[in-house]
Design goal:
Low-confidence stretches of chain B: 1-5
CATH architecture of one domain in chain B: 3-Layer(aba) Sandwich
CATH class of one domain in chain B: Alpha Beta
Helix content of chain A: 25-40%
CATH topology of one domain in chain B: Rossmann fold
CATH topology of the largest domain in chain A: Rossmann fold
Mean pLDDT of chain A: 85
CATH class of the largest domain in chain A: Alpha Beta
Low-confidence stretches of chain A: 1-15
Radius of gyration of chain B: 21 Å
Distance between the termini of chain A: 48 Å
Largest sheet of chain B: 8 strands, mixed
CATH superfamily of one domain in chain B: P-loop containing nucleotide triphosphate hydrolases
Shape of chain B: globular
Strand order of the largest sheet of chain A: 6-7-8-3-9-10-12-11
Number of helices of chain A: 12
Distance between the termini of chain B: 21 Å
Mean pLDDT of chain B: 87
Strand content of chain A: 15-25%
Strand order of the largest sheet of chain B: 6-7-8-3-9-10-12-11
Radius of gyration of chain A: 21 Å
Shape of chain A: globular
Number of helices of chain B: 10
Largest interface: A-B, 47 and 44 residues
Oligomer: heterodimer
Order of helices and strands of chain B: EEEHEEHEHHHEHEHEEHHHEE
């Protein structure tokens, strides 16, 4: 897919070593009546062209808030970004004016939302909603834009696109709706696509279809893909590298093969160990103790220490930085060496 | 773990549940039916777990409701300890319901936010007063809280003061209150965080051993079903397409749908992901109001031939396979090459 728009100003052109998208020490807080919710506490990750980064974490880990900050769709207030940079091809998006941001949003960086039924407007046809991208961003006429919408629906393999373009969202199945969401997000050939739990509401058979479609589109257009999920299976299937989030921080980042073979953070290890395994049927599953922390009142030191089997005294006082294990791996655990060497539980 | 000599506790025969589709306001005319459950038969032994898997809309949850007698079946029987709950009425139905309880999917909506935990877990005793005399109830509730791993002093708290995993424990405690022999778990862990799921699964297994419970475990997460189930039934459009021991279903699936379903499950190990066999089904399941003739899976099946459209394959043991499957061309094929 060649980019048709060549509206890059010289300053925007990617320097040699700058990745396509880089999030750098991002902090997001929500000021609420109950206090300050620290949803994201210093997250850094990068994604390059054609690369798939999986952001793994449970609800409340800050993975979606980070994505919303990249898209610039956080409600501010109550959200505040006190610190951090989000660089797209070297330009800090957080410093751009709202107008310039609108040029990026949807066109250069696009997003697929989790729940397609609530993300689509029930009172407009899907064709209208897809073609809106072309009318608003490209100034096309209605009929031209509608033609483009049919093309896109073909591209995401919706059968009988020409007829179905006039249907409403409720007339489609869950998988087809998610395809429509994907069609909308790739309409303007974005360079970065953020998929926030794109298959969580779907059956496994449909999930396989959607993941295959995303992989194909990515191959065609060399998009950078940020896949936000809590599913360790999906991640293992498609990711190039993984960032594991816990309580608003990245606790481990690594290439996909390393993390599954030798996790270097107790949380990652606990998650992997709690997957039911065939050879351990009939035994108890390994379970991470306790509950995810309250973001209003994060534990002192390492946020994971109340649940951690590797805990030592200093974990309660000093928050670990993201230690570099090798050039491409990091773990935010004081005792990552022990975790790395340690036996898998069970 | 169940053995063959153990007692049969639940016997389901040719269970059918159709929801009528009507037209007209004053003179309602039936123009068709959603065939949600369309001829399901199985047995369940004491202390055994039967896992039920299938895509959404295949009738899993309707099946659960019919088993609980929350819906009356269109035809067929559900025998609990030899007596048919589908035909029971009044006092008899009430007594039979004591024996089969349910754990719901969503712990956020299945607990009344205006009731304290003590009232929620104790409510079954209001209905079945013979189980626990009034003075004994709060002690019983506290015992139940302890059994499911919650603090017995939290009796007077409200559901919103608990996390998702804890709420599901409350739901389980409520299910246990009447000391049932069968518990129907409808997606009990799918609303929970990954790190909490394992805790709840372990709890369910511990309770099963402790009280010799029989579980009907409905879930879409196939690896969880495999972990907890002794036998597994695969449902497609209101029918079982395959039924067998967990190892038979997972290691030697015979029905093409089971094979496709298993191959679609992402394996949490990137090693060898390029070589993995993947059967990607095209399209969506057909509407249960108008299922295809013959074999219901034929519209998405790569093995379909003429006979599939004409003759409905019955759920039976097929040559070359050791367990029941409903396919004319059943052939065991290991799709998940994991140890």
């Amino acid at each position: 897919m060649n980019k048709t728009s060549t509206d890059l100003s010289p300053a925007e052109v990617t320097p040699g070593d700058e990745p396509l998208l880089a999030v750098d020490d991002l902090h997001v807080e929500f000021h609420t009546r109950a206090g300050t919710v620290r949803a994201v506490n210093g997250v850094s990750y990068t994604v390059g062209a054609g690369e798939t980064l999986a952001v793994l974490g449970e609800s409340g880990s800050g993975k979606s808030v980070t994505a919303q900050a990249i898209m610039g769709i956080l409600d501010m207030p109550p959200a505040v970004i006190p610190h951090g940079e989000i660089r797209f091809k070297g330009t800090d998006l957080l410093k751009l004016s709202e107008e310039a941001r609108t040029q990026v949003r949807g066109q250069r960086i696009a997003m697929i939302f989790q729940d397609a039924l609530s993300a689509l407007n029930p009172v407009f046809t899907v064709g209208w909603q897809i073609s809106e991208m072309f009318r608003v961003h490209r100034g096309m006429s209605k009929s031209e834009a509608m033609k483009k919408a049919v093309e896109l629906m073909d591209r995401v393999r919706i059968p009988a696109a020409k007829q179905r373009v006039h249907d409403y969202p409720h007339q489609f199945s869950g998988g087809m709706r998610q395809r429509i969401m994907i069609a909308m997000s790739i309409a303007l050939d974005p360079e970065v696509l953020i998929a926030d739990e794109p298959t969580t509401a779907l059956d496994v058979t449909v999930q396989a279809q959607i993941m295959e479609l995303l992989a194909e589109l990515q191959r065609e257009s060399q998009m950078g893909l940020i896949l936000i999920t809590h599913d360790l299976g999906v991640v293992a299937d498609v990711a190039d590298k993984i960032a594991v989030m816990y309580a608003g921080r990245i606790v481990e980042n690594a290439p996909v093969y390393d993390i599954y073979k030798t996790p270097a953070h107790p949380y990652t290890k606990g998650l992997l160990d709690s997957i039911p395994r065939v050879d351990l049927k009939g035994q108890d599953l390994y379970a991470i103790k306790g509950l995810p922390p309250n973001l209003l009142d994060l534990p002192k030191g390492c946020s994971f220490h109340p649940r951690c089997p590797y805990r030592q005294d200093n974990c309660e006082s000093t928050a670990p930085q993201l230690y570099e294990i090798s050039g491409i791996r990091g773990s935010a655990c004081h005792y990552w060496r022990e975790v790395l060497d340690g036996e898998r539980q069970q | 773990m169940a053995n063959d000599s153990s007692e049969r506790i639940l016997e389901v025969r040719d269970l059918v549940k159709h929801f009528p589709l009507t037209q007209g306001i004053l003179f309602k005319k039936q123009i068709g039916a959603i065939k949600a459950v369309d001829g399901v038969s199985f047995d369940l032994n004491r202390g055994e777990t039967l896992g039920i898997v299938g895509e959404s809309g295949c009738g899993k949850s309707t099946l659960a409701k019919v088993l609980m007698a929350l819906e009356r079946p269109t035809s067929g029987s559900v025998k609990i300890n030899g007596r048919d709950i589908a035909k029971a009425r009044g006092g008899e139905l009430k007594r039979m319901r004591r024996n089969i309880q349910m754990v719901m999917q969503d712990p956020y909506t299945s607990l009344n936010p205006r009731m304290t935990v003590g009232d929620i877990i104790g409510e079954p005793y209001e209905i079945h007063t013979e189980v626990a005399p009034k003075g004994d109830r709060s002690r019983r509730v506290q015992e139940l809280l302890e059994v499911v791993g919650l603090n017995p002093d939290h009796l007077n708290r409200y559901p919103h003061q608990f996390s998702g995993g804890q709420r599901q424990r409350i739901g389980i405690a409520r299910g246990l209150a009447l000391q049932p022999e069968i518990i129907v778990c409808d997606e009990p862990v799918s609303a929970l965080d990954v790190s909490i799921q394992a805790q709840v699964i372990n709890l369910l297994e511990r309770l099963q051993n402790e009280f010799n419970l029989a579980y009907i475990f409905i879930a879409h997460d196939l690896s969880v079903v495999r972990h907890i189930s002794d036998r597994v039934g695969v449902m497609y459009l209101g029918k079982f397409v395959e039924l067998g021991k967990d190892t038979e279903i997972y290691d030697r699936p015979a029905h093409p749908y089971t094979q496709a379903l298993l191959s679609a499950v992402p394996v949490p190990d990137p090693e060898g992901r390029e070589q993995r066999e993947r059967i990607i089904l095209q399209g969506d399941p057909p509407s249960p109001a108008n299922p295809p003739s013959g074999c219901r899976f034929r519209t998405r099946c790569w093995k379909a031939q003429e006979i599939c459209a004409q003759e409905e394959p019955l759920l039976q043991i097929r040559p070359g396979t050791g367990h029941e499957s409903a396919c004319h061309f059943a052939e065991t094929h290991d799709v998940v090459h994991v140890s």
